[in-house]
Amino acid sequence: MIKKLAAVLAIIVGITNIGGIFAPESAYAAAAPEIIAEAGILIDGTTGQILYTKNENATLEPASTTKMITCLLAIENLEMDHVVTIDDETPFTEGSRIYLLEDEQITVENLLYALMLESANDAAVALAKEISGSTEAFAVKMNERAKELGATSTNFVNPNGLHTEGHLSTVHDLAMIAKGCMENETFRTLCSTYYHYIPATNKQDERHMYNTNRLLYDEKTLVPVNGVSVPAKYEGAVGIKTGYTSHAGGCLVAGAERDGTFLIAVVMKSTDAGRFGDSIALFDYGFASYHTVKAADITDDMGRASVKRGAVADVGLELAESAYVTLPIEASSSVLSTKLVLEDERTAPIKKGDELGRLEIYEGESNLLTTVSVLAKEEVGEGTLLSVFGIENHTAYIIYIVAGVIVTLMLALTIAYIVLKRRQIRRRRARRAKRAMEIAKQRLEREKDITKRDWRF
């Protein structure tokens, strides 16, 4: 019996070892990543939580990753079918380009594909001038929009990332910019596209655009990932933007999504191949260690809240957006708890969408992870005078009607009483007058009778 058990155990151990031999390639991701880049960061692209960082605040040249903000501003300020006429300066833009010609007419959509796939510097200049009139004026817009997206140490000088004194950013800022950009569906489509065809224009033959981001397609090129060479193509890759100059080195802002978890990796001052390997190392680490969990859905019923001096006594509540949190891979949503915190006083009028409080998301009972605004679900107008006592307009109107009927009845009764009393007084006066007339008549008859008697005697 013991020999049989030993044999079974030996078989199990053997199978286990064989399983280890054929472990998936991403097994090396369990350890903290080792990256070649001088600076790198990994964030949850949904929540913004930082999962890994290396020199996150070092200011470095961003190269063509600059074009993310150029692309976003073009989407926000120009129609996709708008036709741009190229000026006499843009064709002389240096670096990667699609060789735009003076007076060439091309749509914004095609310029954007050239910008994000071919990393065309001349397309960036054309878009910048179409929006702001000059690249200098456009740089002001770039910096303003970057700050709105969470950048704190970025200074853009041109729209394409070519080496210019003072044109600097950080991996942290580029990650925040990428997060904001990827929330725009048009941007997301552009940066994740591998191939785009531009038909012939009035000046050029047809053009074929191919994305420079090897994570999207390249199964042949091997890149270094934690000391192991693996294909550059990455499962779940969704963009975002490459960058390379001799001054900036290899830069890459990359996005990848698996099983509802969307990660953004940024590396700066790596090598040409190293930027792709670095991003894979960061992604493997992130997906092996964390996942994104929906803590509250925008459709969740948030109940109702009382309202002072309103047409109604309460207002419906809804979330401004769904709430997500980043948790360790082994943790589930069961560790989360929520707390609804409302303003102390809610006084009418209230408009639909007014912020009335927040929903706090906790890990356990005390570790606050995030908050999401709680809004008024509908409009609440000012109430009547009775709203001071918490009486809704509907009830107040009934009270007013009943009170009006009672007042009307009382008024009618009062008038009827007055009319009746006046009638009684007139009747009484009439009876008195009649009685007086009768008395006067009797007196006159007596006097006549007396007169007759004196005359006869």
Describe the fold and architecture.
The chain is α+β, with helices and mostly antiparallel strands and 457 residues long. It folds into three domains: 31-294, 3-Layer(aba) Sandwich (Beta-lactamase); 297-383, Peptidoglycan synthesis regulatory factor (PBP3), Domain 2; 393-420. 36% of the residues lie in helices and 24% in strands. The protein contains nine helices and 18 strands. The protein has helices spanning 2-21, 67-77, 108-116, 121-132, 135-148, 171-182, 185-192, 274-289, 393-456, and strands at residues 39-44, 50-54, 83-85, 105-107, 195-198, 207-210, 222-225, 228-231, 237-245, 249-258, 261-270, 290-296, 304-306, 314-319, 323-328, 336-342, 355-363, 367-376. It has a five-stranded antiparallel sheet with strand order 2-1-11-10-9, with helices on both faces. Strand 7 and strand 8 form a beta hairpin. Helix 2 crosses helix 4 (121-132) and helix 4 (121-132) packs across helix 5.
Tell me the β content: 15-25%
* Number of DSSP strand runs: 18
Low-confidence stretches: 1-29
| Series of H and E elements | HEEHEEHHHHHEEEEEEEHEEEEEEEH
Overall tally of structural domains: 3
The CATH architecture of the largest domain would be 3-Layer(aba) Sandwich
For CATH, the homologous superfamily of the largest domain is named as: DD-peptidase/beta-lactamase superfamily
pLDDT averaged residue by residue: 89
Q: What is the CA-based Rg, rounded?
A: 42 Å
Shape by Cα distribution = elongated
| Topology-level CATH name of the largest domain | Beta-lactamase
Distance between the termini: 173 Å
**Number of H- or I-type helical stretches:** 9
